[in-house]
Amino acid sequence: MNIQVLLEKMDLHQIEQLKLAKQAITLLEGRRKSLLAQMAEIDDQIAAIKSGKLDPKQVLPSAPQPKEPGSQPRARRSVGGGLNEHIVEVLTAAKEPLSVMEIADAVKQRGYESKSKDFVKVVRVAVYGMDNVESAERGRYRLRA
Questions:
Q1: What does the pLDDT average to over 102-130?
Q2: Is 80 exceeded by the pLDDT of residue 85?
């Protein structure tokens, strides 16, 4: 069948689907080739261990070394600083006082990550403890002048 005739029978969606299918197949074939190479390497290692040419210790992962408590610095969970820094940035950019919920939403939009189930409560506690934040009106906060 002529390619032009085939294309005339297909709509743009079908052509796009074919293009995506081709990309997916190419990707998967590459992954398959890589996995086959890894399997061949593993087969070679198994044969070498069985024949005594390879020490099994070279294949086994080394035992993890125990870490001393407090030896690692605490991981940052956010981009651009801690929670207080994010709150200050949000309040600096705000044109009017914000509620704790608005502050929490803006902090998350700025890239702060938290695993807290009640992030608004975390922000509320932080805001109450910050000397440079004041209550502007009931339930709304701004930076102290």
A1: 92
A2: yes
Residue 135 phi, psi dihedral angles, 5° rounding: -80, 125
**CA dihedral (51, 54, 55, 60) positive or negative:** negative
Is the pTM above the cut of 0.70?
no
- Domain with 43, as residue range(s), is 3-50
Query: What is the pLDDT at residue 82?
Result: 87
Domain count, the chain: 2
- Two tokens, residue 17: 């689907």
- Please answer whether residues 133 and 127 qualify as being in contact, where contact means their C-beta atoms are separated by less than 8 angstroms: yes
pLDDT of residue 107: 92
Whether 59 is covered by a domain: the verdict is no
Question: For residue 101, what is the domain's CATH number?
Answer: 1.10.10
In a domain, 66, yes or no: no
Tell whether 97 is covered by a domain. Answer: yes
Q: Could you tell me which residues come within 8 angstroms of residue 94 by beta carbon, excluding any fewer than 6 positions away? A: 106, 142
